[in-house]
Design a protein that fits this description.
14% strand, 263 residues, globular, 7-stranded parallel β-sheet, single chain
């Protein structure tokens, strides 16, 4: 029987927010398929721990301390990837923050600006500096991590929702611009994803609404078909598909990984 080659063998990727959560799960899945990785973010200890885990599993990985809202830092991250691996094939725009849990009238300008800067402007800056390399190669994959919050009105989460709606518009626009160069651009919209961030969101929402955390969790689960949260690995599996040759004709799409979320 002929051996099956790893799906991402010989390719190099940047995963922003790669030290924990969904970003870490994506990095681990890509590395298992032969991809070299730059994992980027601002949490040095977590990034180093993930990079060490990748190397222990036989992968190639480097860390880039990068605030994606800082264009100079983003440019340095991309150039560092090219210098280390000789190419850049995949960009995963995963870096993001939850932003404030408050009514829109109580959100400060600083909270709004920081949420949009990281969640949306950061994705634009990463794409801006990655695309020239992909265009020269006449190939590439950009995967944007948005949220089901990009499909709905989301009381008490105005900044986050706006950033995720914006990501979907950016995703479709980049797909049209990059398509003629053989580059695909797609988004993944996770639903409630079990992990540290979701726990913090539930806790903050429970406090804001004077409800129990169990009540808030049920409010997130009731609109789903599966009546459960998704896992970080579920999202990573979809990212692997979009990064692979199997998805060569998929672009401009936003794929919901949400357990069948409907509202």
């Amino acid at each position: 029987m002929e051996a099956v080659s790893p799906r991402l063998a010989g390719r190099a990727a940047i995963v922003t927010g790669g030290g924990h959560g969904i970003g870490r799960a994506i990095a681990l899945r890509f590395a298992a398929e032969g991809c070299a990785l730059t994992i980027a973010g601002t949490g040095g200890e977590r990034l180093e721990a993930t990079a060490r885990e990748l190397r222990e599993r036989g992968g190639r990985a480097q860390v880039s301390l990068t605030d994606v809202a800082d264009e100079t830092a983003v440019e340095r991250m991309v150039e560092g990837t090219i210098a280390e691996f000789g190419r850049l094939d995949i960009l995963v725009n995963n870096a993001g923050i939850a932003g404030p849990t408050a009514a829109a009238v109580d959100v400060t300008r600083d909270e709004w600006d920081r949420t949009l800067a990281i969640n949306l402007t950061g994705a634009l800056l990463c794409a801006k500096h990655a695309l020239p390399h992909m265009i020269r190669q006449k190939s590439g994959r950009i995967i944007n991590i948005t949220s089901v919050a990009g499909f709905i009105g989301y009381p008490l989460r105005a900044a986050y929702a706006a950033s995720k709606w914006g990501m979907i518009g950016l995703n479709r626009t980049l797909a049209l611009e990059a398509g003629p160069h053989g580059i695909t651009v797609n988004a993944i919209a996770p639903g409630s994803t079990r992990g540290e961030r979701m726990s913090r969101v539930i806790r903050a929402r429970a406090q804001a609404l004077d409800k129990s955390e169990a009540e808030i969790e049920r409010e997130y689960l009731d609109p789903t078909a599966l009546k459960r949260m998704v896992s970080e690995e579920d999202v990573a599996a979809t990212a692997l598909f979009l990064a692979s040759d199997e998805a060569a004709s998929v672009t401009g799409e936003t794929i919901s990984v949400s357990g069948g979320f409907r509202i």
